[in-house]
Amino acid sequence: MAHTQASSASPTLAFLTLVLSLLSLARTVRSALPPLGDINTLFVLGDSYSATGFNPSKGYDQWAQSPDTFGSGRSWSMFIANSTRVPSALYDRTFSLAEGGTPLSPDRSWPNFPKDGVKAEVDRFAEYFVNASTEGKGARPVWTGDRTLFVIWFGVNDFEIAGKMGNLALPVTDGTFDRLREQVTRLYDLGARNFLFPTLSQFHRTPTIRAQSTPDFDAPSEYEAVYLRWNAKLKETVADFPLTLPDANVQVWDAWSWFGQMLDNAEAFGFKNSSTWCSAYSHLKWNYADVPDQDKPECGLSEYFWTDAAHPTYAVHEYLADSLIETLSNPQDTLVIEFNPMRLLNPEKRLSRRMSALSLRDGTSPSHHQHLPRHSRRMRRVPKRWDVSWTAVDPDTVGEA
Ligand SMILES: *[C@@H]1O[C@H](CO)[C@@H](O)[C@H](O)[C@H]1NC(C)=O
Ligand SMILES: *[C@@H]1O[C@H](CO)[C@@H](O)[C@H](O)[C@H]1NC(C)=O
Ligand SMILES: *[C@@H]1O[C@H](CO)[C@@H](O)[C@H](O)[C@H]1NC(C)=O
Predict the structure, then answer these.
(1) Cβ distance 285 to 392 under 8 Å?
(2) Tens of pLDDT along 167-188?
(3) Where is this region: Disordered (predicted)?
(4) Rounded to the nearest whole angstrom, what is the distance from the C-alpha of residue 382 to the centroid of ligand 1?
(5) Structural domain total, the chain
(6) Residue located nearest, by CA, to atom 1 of ligand 1
(7) Is 374 buried (19+), middle (13-18) or exposed (0-12) by CB count in 10 A?
(8) Domain annotation covers residue 385
(9) What is the DSSP letter of 50?
(10) Nearest CA to ligand 3 atom 1
């Protein structure tokens, strides 16, 4: 009897082994994203780190709309769109559907913030970018799956809200990654083929998380631990996509290491202050302006890593854009792709450009800023349709991502 069981078990085992080795084979045949030079349309789904204020219900020209970013300046996708090192089509065909405060999971949301998580952004995508036609009133940008990249970057708000709900680990223990799978599958069914998933930034190093520490709660290390679990689950989830989505190219961008290297070497990148933010800016919302950090006598904004308690300044966004351009222009055939931002400091010319901008500021005493002719230099460089102004934002939103 025991013998019979053993012999009937072994074909089952052999079959299982075969299935498992086929599965692992499938994992290794995943192909890299096409080089950025072959991409002519970019869609971004995410939260405040990726928000631009673009609203497709107002038309498809993001530059004609008022920006609404969280870095007191251009957001990373705006820097990419306007870069000379990417296909020029991206200038008009970079669409961020990201909204501040959006978590991945529809089960969590801030009061008065977007609901339905990533699903809400995919809904918008389906509403405004599917069934494209070049003709007539309903003309939409025509995109093809092979030349379009989707960047999907979430997570910070899931943890912030879970923390407020008293269960920080919820995003890595509930069905959050099933929700991601559903929405990515939906995008795939609508024609999407190329997907990039950045990991979490090192958000535990933001002033807002550091400020949550109490004698009983070491906030940065508690958050770091759950963030690392999220990143591991993200990699697992993404590694499995090719099993169910044939022809999909999926990669994970190691934003975690990128932010770590930026923060560890903040001074080398020109940030004199990476521990806190300049409050003169934190309650203000930037509008199109070329040199946004010369308005305030208290501080030069681009010398700060943080623009408020939770968000990096536009100067960080510019480095982020440059790094993504470098990474995506030179495909790496691994699930997790990365770029060490220290490489941006070579060639020298970039560093010296930034350093000379900073030393210019250093030569001016803070009070002297007040006597500078207001906007004189930059007005000439700002196209007319952009209004140059700062307006107050709801202080409650500062601190949310
Ligand atoms: C694009 O880059 C150019 C050159 O750096 C700059 O003058 C212009 O203001 C930028 N435009 C946008 C829309 O960011
Ligand atoms: C696109 O058009 C097809 C055919 O008319 C229709 O079945 C489908 O629902 C449309 N999809 C969207 C997202 O509008
Ligand atoms: C950073 O900026 C804050 C606010 O402006 C200031 O109080 C602090 O001393 C600065 N830290 C450093 C290291 O410059």
Answers:
(1) yes
(2) 999 999 999 999 999 999 999 9
(3) 359-379
(4) 9
(5) 1
(6) 82
(7) exposed
(8) no
(9) T
(10) 273
Q: Write the pLDDT tens digit of every residue in 95-114.
A: 999 999 999 999 888 888 87
- DSSP E strand boundaries for 41-193: 41-46, 94-96, 148-153
Phi and psi of 120, rounded to 5°? -60, -35
CATH classification of the domain holding 187:
3.40.50.1110
Q: How far is the CA of 257 from the centre of ligand 3 (A)?
A: 25
CA–CA gap between residue 78 and residue 63 (Å, rounded)? 9
In a domain, 372, yes or no: no
Locate 156 and state its tokens: 């910070």
Q: What is the pLDDT of residue 295?
A: 60
SS3 306: strand
Query: What's the domain range around 115?
Result: 28-359
On whether residue 329 sits in a domain, the answer given is yes
Q: Is 165 in the pocket of ligand 2 (CB under 6 A)?
A: no
CB contact at 8 A, 391 and 283:
no
Residues near 13 by beta carbon (within 8 Å), at least 6 away in sequence = none
CA angle 101/161/75 to nearest 5° reads 25
Residue of 114, 261, 239 whose CA lies nearest to 184: 239
Q: Identify the residue whose C-alpha is closest to ligand 2 atom 7.
A: 131
Q: Is residue 52 part of a domain?
A: yes
